[in-house]
Amino acid sequence: MILELSDSLKRAILSHAAFFPKREICGFLVFENGGLAYRPCLNTAADPRKNFEIAPEDWLHYGDAVRAVVHSHPDGEPFLSGADRQAQVATALPWVLAVRRRVRVFRPVPHLRGREFFYGTADCYSLIADAYHLAGIELIAVERGEMDTDAAQNLFETLAPKAGFYRVPLTSLRAGDVLLTAHNGHANHAMLYLGGGEVLHHAYGQLSRREPYSDFWQQRTASVWRHRDWRDGCMVAVGNDLIHCV
């Protein structure tokens, strides 16, 4: 479920962040009286300029009413840090980030590495969509049918322009690009190029993983796609997750 924030909630969060411009603020979105409310908490971290910590007493006080964790990044990094991602996965909650006078909502997606494969819910497209989400780019939802049938219909290539992708030559490959690999003449697998000769992908029957863009994959690459909204800094968000997961 996507967490939608009202303008009043955004103003409350940004006002709290503006009051403490040199330290990370924190708090909860809680369900009260039939709706969401922002409840600021004291940042008890040893160095609140760089980290945040919410006291156990606050977690206990709000309990099951907590719908999201809120904090800010005074240094301006518009992504969840590696430590943020570890904690977010542990809480299984949306996290809201106040940064650069804007509010960003991050779904509680699993870590990018180590996922089990389930076509349609945890597959190569799901992995890429979640990586892009962490980077601040929302890809379209794609309803899948049967895996071989979808591949035979060139599902990704058909929907890629609608999702904001355009095709580029392999010779211009750069971090953030999506590689389509083909089997029996049909593109049936997608990988995220991480740069430095490495890819992130989720193959059928395997755990999602980071590995070299080897000759095996290069020989099977059918096309390369670049998203119009991808920027060089976006890879920081993906790297933050990869560094801190097993």
TrEMBL record:
SUPFAM superfamilies given in the database record: Cysteine proteinases, JAB1/MPN domain
UniProt keyword annotation of Hydrolase present: yes
First and last residue of the signal peptide: none
Gene Ontology terms describing biological process: proteolysis
Alphabetical keyword list: Hydrolase, Metal-binding, Metalloprotease, Protease, Thiol protease, Zinc
All residue ranges annotated as the NlpC/P60 domain in the record: 91-228
An example Gene Ontology molecular-function term: cysteine-type peptidase activity
One Pfam family hit: NLPC_P60
Family: Belongs to the peptidase C40 family.
PANTHER family cross-referenced by the UniProt entry: CYSO-CYSTEINE PEPTIDASE
Protein name from the UniProt record: C40 family peptidase
